[in-house]
Amino acid sequence: MSTVDARLSVFKTYKLYVGGKFPRSESGRVYEVTDSKSKWLANAPLASRKDARDAVVAARKAFGPWSGATAYNRGQILYRVAEMLEGRKEQFVREVAEAEGLSKSKAAAQVDAAIDRWVWYAGWTDKIAQVVGGGNPVAGPFFNLSTPEPTGVVTVIAPQESSFLGLVSVVAPVIATGNTAIVVASEKSPLPALSLGEVLATSDLPGGVVNVLSGRTAEIATPLAAHQDVNAIDLAGADDVLAKELEIAAADNLKRVLRPQPVDYAETPGIERMTAFLETKTVWHPTGSLGASGSSY
Amino acid sequence: MPTTAPAAHALGDVTASDSTLRRFLHGLPGVDAVGLEARAASLGTRSIKTTAKAYAIDLAISMVDLTTLEGADTPGKVRALGVKAVHPDPTDRTTPTTAAVCVYPDMVAAAKEAVAGSGVKVASVATAFPAGRAALDVKLADVRDAVSAGADEVDMVIDRGAFLAGNYMKVYDEIVAVREALGSSARLKVIFETGELSTYDNIRRASWLGMLAGADFIKTSTGKVAVNATPANTLLMLEAVRDFRAQTGVQVGVKPAGGIRTSKDAIKFLVLVNETAGEDWLDNHWFRFGASSLLNDLLMQRQKLATGRYSGPDYVTVD
Fold first, then answer.
1. How far is the C-alpha of A230 from the C-alpha of A151, rounded, in Å?
2. In degrees to the nearest 10, what's the CA dihedral of B206, B209, B210, B212?
């Protein structure tokens, strides 16, 4: 027996990422994750509706501080995420290659693109307000200002096929504008998403801003779509039947719904995914010469 | 329904003098701390689901003493609280009312007005709450003030300093004096501030001392210190009221207060009540929760059971 081969392999326990912590599923369940050739890779937690509920509580708690943070600060933190990803690139390349059956170089290209996308969205945090907000000309002695504000707690059904680049492309725009997210990872390939949780936990991103759940998409997404404390849902990873069902459930508290659409995640995105989860607030501010009191009233 | 008359007859003359009282309290069996905590923890693992959960939530709502005890309390806030106590969930009129609203003495009149005609009681803290560091005359004046304003229940704090110094008779006399000042109509809750009593043995002694002095309720804490109601100290007090009724025939209520924020916690306490004191205590005449944020969580859980959808803080009032 050679001494080098005698070392036992250390398997990784993949866990959920909720509220800045790494819990197992409340249900205690796991399911087998395989690569593109049906070879076993790891056991991933099979999240239940109670895990989804806990994630909403965590996301709601994080919303105030995160949406209240300056856009500049959010940009810094998102950039930090990209830095951390860069340091763990090898791991993500391996996980993406296994999950999607890609060659190492193709997987590396995906991961590079995903890291660049974080940087791209990090730059948008303090610029989006200039693009979609502004001063409106009105016929009266008023300033009329429109500013974009985050929608709130957003459920993101991550794309099923593009396990990492697709995931980053739907999560980053949601949190860049100050929303908090509950991410339902790709059912077949959840490992890159669960590892992303570990990166986010070490990137100054406050706990609860992104929460990652793995498991059966329909089982987790259904209670989230009906949840009264979720403000919006991105159906990117839902198939037609599920998307319809979720949209009906989401109508109950008038959630914002982003329907699934064909996207090439390799291309540079527009700002649609950011504006989809922004509300426009318009305020009227009286103008006029100031009186002696310092006010025009 | 058992009466709540002073129980000196059944326990002989343990309150005759300082030394007999001390001998009695120190003669109580010591508490097995590990066993107590293990018992409380194991009872906390019971799974209460579906119809039992619905029953437990409604029962818990009916047991809430909806509390606001802040320096910033205004008559307006107390009125809002009173309305919430009467109609906890305005969108669902089948929701039970809470047991009481709990306020400072100067807010009793406002609270009384807000809950008039609803059956919701008004409880007032008194006796220099929460520290209890004032002369007896001042404490009694505080109590009379609350009662004359119309309080149905008075929550007094014991003199922890005297208790910890071993001056049990002083504590006893104070409770008796407050009991007399209340008159016959109002019920007396005695707060021990278990977080300041240091040991489980002390909590057991305080429980018996309070019951001997004529408390209608024994209450864990003020909610103003770091450690408030825990399952273990509530279990200990439930054992005390059970044993007290077995010896004297007098039933005394229990009120854990502070730190109970979720429906899950509340249901754990109800399991403790059922398994320790028994079904006789599963009524808001004998068991209460001193809480403010608990009610919202109970209401959200109730809405979840009714609709099948998880509710959120947008659908309950913020107070």
1. 10
2. 160
pTM (2 d.p.): 0.89
pLDDT, one tens digit per residue, over A10-35 is 999 999 999 999 999 999 999 999 99
**A226, closest residue in chain B (CA to CA):** B309
Q: What is the CATH number of the domain that holds A136?
A: 3.40.605.10
Residue boundaries of the structural domains of chain B? 19-305
In a domain, A119, yes or no: yes
Neighbours of A112 (CB within 10 A): 16
What does each C-alpha distance from A74 to A83, A123, A147, A181, A269 come to in angstroms? 14, 10, 17, 14, 20
Q: What is the ipTM of this complex?
A: 0.83
Q: Is B310 on the interface with A (CB under 8 A)?
A: yes
Inter-chain residue contact B309 with A229, CB threshold 8 Å: no
Taking CA–CA distances from A61, the nearest residue in chain B reads B313
A24 within some domain = no
Q: State how far the Cα of B222 lies from the Cα of A227, in Å rounded to an integer.
A: 35
Minimal C-alpha gap between A171 and chain B (Å): 23
Is A18 part of any domain? no
What are the pLDDT digits (tens) for B132-182? Answer: 999 999 999 999 999 999 999 999 999 999 999 999 999 999 999 999 999
pLDDT band at B188 (very low <50, low <70, confident <90, very high): very high
Under CATH, what is the fold of the domain B19-305? TIM Barrel (3.20.20)
Q: With beta carbons under 8 A apart, name residues in chain A contacting B261.
A: none
> A241 is in which domain, residue-wise?
44-265+277-286
Q: Is the dihedral of CA B88, B93, B97, B103 positive or negative?
A: positive
Which of B231, B251, B257 is CA-nearest to residue B65? B257
- List, for residues B33-88, the tens digit of each pLDDT value: 999 999 999 999 999 999 999 999 999 999 999 999 999 999 999 999 999 999 99
Question: Are the Cβ atoms of A227 and B312 closer than 8 angstroms?
Answer: yes
